[in-house]
Design a protein that fits this description.
Blueprint (H helix, E strand, L loop, with lengths): L1 H5 L7 H8 L3 H7 L3 H21 L7 H29 L4 H19 L4 H4 L2 H11 L1 H10 L4 H16 L1
Length: 167
């Protein structure tokens, strides 16, 4: 399923997954009770890959340097998870698991910002929302997928937005 999604099939059926794995659909459901359990397995796999990136301490001395590092890290992470996030978004409105996972991801994005943004700025809900929008996955997906920008160009756009936003 991971390969199918990475290749562009954003909503593969169990039958397609079984065909790709060269097993029967029954075998797929013997290992995974439902499609959500396949998503849970993929989520665990991708989280194991990105967790070391997320947990690295920031090297910058100032919050602005750390925010710049956060943007660079998110670029790496978002490029890795984009196909899975898009596929999950297609199904999240019909899946409690995927909806909860979506909210958990938003919470993790917010916590990442809380690690670097000064408390006084965190108190300004409008400013925090604007920063969150600029450095969040949805902005990244739009830049990379809808606008067709390279990862480097998308990082430049995000940095420009943050620079202009923060003055």
């Amino acid at each position: 399923m991971f390969a199918l999604i990475t290749e562009g099939n954003m909503d593969p059926s169990a039958a397609v997954v079984a065909q790709r794995a060269e097993v029967s659909a029954r075998t797929v459901f013997r290992h995974f009770e439902e499609m959500d359990s396949l998503y849970a397995e993929m989520t665990a796999r991708i989280e194991a890959e990105i967790l070391p990136i997320v947990q690295q301490p920031f090297a910058g001395d100032t919050w602005r340097e750390q925010l710049d590092q956060l943007i660079a890290r998110r670029a790496t992470i978002y490029d890795k998870i984009m196909p899975l996030k898009i596929a999950a978004s297609i199904r999240r409105f019909s899946s409690e698991y995927l909806m909860a996972n979506y909210q958990r991801f938003l919470d993790m994005e917010r916590m990442g910002l809380e690690r670097v943004i000064p408390k006084a700025m965190m108190a300004d809900a409008t400013l925090l929302s604007a920063i969150e929008m600029c450095v969040g996955f949805q902005a990244w997906r739009r830049l990379r997928q809808d606008q067709g920008l390279s990862s480097d160009a998308a990082v430049k756009v995000v940095r420009l937005c943050i620079t202009r936003l923060l003055g």
